[in-house]
Amino acid sequence: MSEIIKRLPFFYDITLRDGNQSLKKPWNTIEKEIIFNHLAELGVQGVEAGFAAASEMDFEACSRLSQIAPDNIVISALARCVKNDIEKAAEAVKSAKKRRIHTFIAMSPFNMEYVLNKSPQEIRKQAIEAVSFAKNLIGSGGEVQFSVEHFGDCNENIDFVIESLKEIVKAGASIINLPNTVERTRPSIFVQMVEKVYNALPKDITISVHNHNDLGMATATTVESYFKGAVQLECALNGLGERAGNTNMYEVAVALHNAGIDVPLNLSKIYETALVISDMSNVKIYEKAPLIGPEALAHRSGIHQDGAIKTKDMEKGAYRPIHPSLIGRKDDEKFAFTSQSGKTAIFEIITEAGYPITLGEAQRITPFAKEAAEKIGELSTRNIIDIYYQNVLNIKGAFKFIDIEKLPDEQIRLKFNYNSKEFNVISKGNGPIDQCIKAIQKSGFNAEFINYEQKALNMGSDAVGMTIMYFKAPNGKTIISRGCDENTFIANIKAIFNGLNIIENEKEHL
């Protein structure tokens, strides 16, 4: 095992071939060049440029990319085990310093009998001759890769496959690729098959895997194959490929990174690359796509939100596989509110929007938010701010402020309603807050004032004053209330009446 994982993973990109051939509108040479430049920035070590014999456009793209490829990137063209295909591939990649012909044929019992209509011995002979021909054409500066198409279906004839591969290696193949062409085989079985091939072939031969995602397990199969000897990992950007796609390069790279493997890719380019590929392929990124999806960092469960918020500034988060910055995401974890969410989401959303709130206040208004969410589903930030205004800044209740008038000799006249009964009280005190509290107490209400503070606050487009009041409720609990207004004096009064209504409303729920 230690000998295996000492070898750096070799990321061989198949976006421009497998990914491209699956698109409704395949890319032209100019588009392939743009994507190739992103692959180079990402740091992939090998690129399959196309199927040179498939069309003139594919041949042109392979030729162009071989001309502009940096010296450290392998450029490969695909070819069936057919002389014309191999000649086209060799011609297409001849300009690359690191060039490769990739030839393939199926060896599964099903395909040999029903698709190719040839015996196993005929298939073996064709593969050996094709590899030998490719090796002679590619020359000493190039290499030949051979793929056992439908290797995942070869468990019943694995001995035949291994014996064939030994001859194919002697014929000149230095990379043996083992595709799960259609994902029908359990990952653990496929990985065991990969290990058998690794153990049977010379250790200077590179073992490769190429997994399709028909059952959604391509990433797991690829990652575990690496730990059993597969050094070359054939992956596609955004997981593009036939049917349900190919192994997603980002997922494999990050999974290996998290396993402590030195991944020779520029991981910080992942997110940027994903957005470019989505745009150019016209294939939207699924909102729940691992790592790159819009919802990949979203939390809605109250329990998850609590853990995520407590660890959001840490490298390791309670409910995320990586820190978003690892893959170049500038956005952070998203805390959305549904009926499943809790006070921590309220606190985070309102704080992020620039409004002051305590966890206690968030807990108090959470039931109102849950009630709204049960009716309409996920609440927007605007929905939550509206609830904040209604239940923190403009609290409805038994008390209703009507008017306040300043009188001589440090007196005020306060008018207010309590359960529709109007009070008109004159009181004297040390400043407007003390005057107002004494007017309320004089009216027969127990308002035990503790302290207050004021601050300037930019709420929306205008700067306003906020008063924060602290009261002691009859049950001994400290109540925080707020009041906002352009006029600081009125902000004080609003905070007082909001506090009275909080105390009164809580009495009703006792």
Question: What is this structure, in a nutshell?
Answer:
The chain is α/β, with parallel strands linked by helices and 510 residues long.
Structure in words:
The chain is α/β, with parallel strands linked by helices. The protein has three domains: 2-265, TIM Barrel; 298-393, no CATH class; 399-508, 2-Layer Sandwich (Double Stranded RNA Binding Domain), CATH 3.30.160. It contains 18 helices and 16 strands. The longest helix has 21 residues, at 488-508. The radius of gyration is 34 Å and the shape is elongated.
List the helices and strands and how they pair.
Elements lengths: L1 H4 L4 E4 L1 H7 L7 H14 L3 E5 L5 H13 L5 E7 L2 H10 L6 E8 L2 H6 L5 H19 L3 E8 L8 H14 L1 E8 L6 H14 L5 E6 L6 H9 L3 E6 L13 H10 L11 H12 L16 E2 L2 H9 L23 E2 L7 H10 L6 H18 L4 H13 L5 E9 L3 E8 L2 E8 L3 H11 L5 E12 L2 E11 L5 E8 L2 H21 L2
Parallel strand pairs: 1-2, 1-8, 2-3, 3-4, 4-5, 5-6, 6-7, 7-8, 9-10
Antiparallel strand pairs: 11-12, 12-13, 14-15, 15-16
